[in-house]
Amino acid sequence: MAAGRVLTYGELDERAGRLAGFLRTLGVGPETLVGVLIGSSPELVVGLLGILKAGAAYVPLDPSYPAERLSLMLAQTAAPVVLTQEALRGRLPDTRARVVCLDRDWTEIGRLAPAPAVRVEPDPAGGEVFAYMGLARQLGAGRPVYGLQAGLQAVAEGPASPIEELAARYLAAVREVQPEGPYLLAGWSLGAVIAYEMAQQIASSGGSVDRLAMIDPSPPGLGECLDETAFLAAFALDLVRLSGRQVKIGQEVLAGLDVETALDRLAELGRREGVLPPDVDTPRLRARFDLFRRHVQALEGYRPRPYEGPVTLVQAGAASEPASPGGWCALVRAEPCVLKGDHYSLLLKPALDRLVEHLERDLARAKDPQRRD
pTM for the full model? Predict the structure, then answer.
């Protein structure tokens, strides 16, 4: 992987697969954070993709950061493994993490067989893939999960990108990792809607999707237009519930405030209550809010078509509550499964245990269509 070398998609996929296999031998898997201290080079792309193939998440460590900041980031994340290059090894502070130099150690890494791609999950409305960490962990290292993270830098002025465009963008990223199907797609909330449109586009192009799992998807064709205060309240609820903290930040806290003042208030409360990391400031929170709003606006304008492929449809509700008629039930050929809980608690125990049990059964059916249990 010399400087200036261009990798083909095939070479990139093979190298990332071998790195994923190597990382798994070090105990890296779902819910593991891996530090990345690599300059712009083929190693950077291989490193990031290899981490995702292993089912883990990465912590970007910019070589230009002061040593104190790098040390703090490694301590806060407790990353057990750090990927770097021989030339940058000296920039790393003292750490208990296993340090892997991709250029120096590639002979050892390259001996392992590439790990296959298994499944991808688009992100929810807030754009954060960390909502899937518990699910990925319980599905196990045998089923690596690829989370598609919406980049905050992608937020631009002008109208929100439609769901069809978001799905096409995500699908292009998926095909860089796995050029051909069959695919296993899953998503929660807005992520389920994007996964649905991805499956439609795959089917339209002659590809195959073995299973589409929709976990409490947002209502199709949502026609409700929210005002600024309602958007802020929904955004605050999303932040709190996804953090797992028992904190109340209601609409009354934000009432009467303009957007910038409300986000200042949210940033302050979020950091104080542990809802947000300490380094999340108002500009970054504003970027997340803008992304959240654009995603909701995209959902408002989406009109899904019926889908004929195999679907697992999971809805939140009371244990004895029948699935609501219409909506997604009218668009897919699947008997919905209603799990006790609300929209957010489905991804937390004990509802998560029942969700994983249901998904594993349907994934087994996808592998063996004759299976009936």
Answer: 0.66
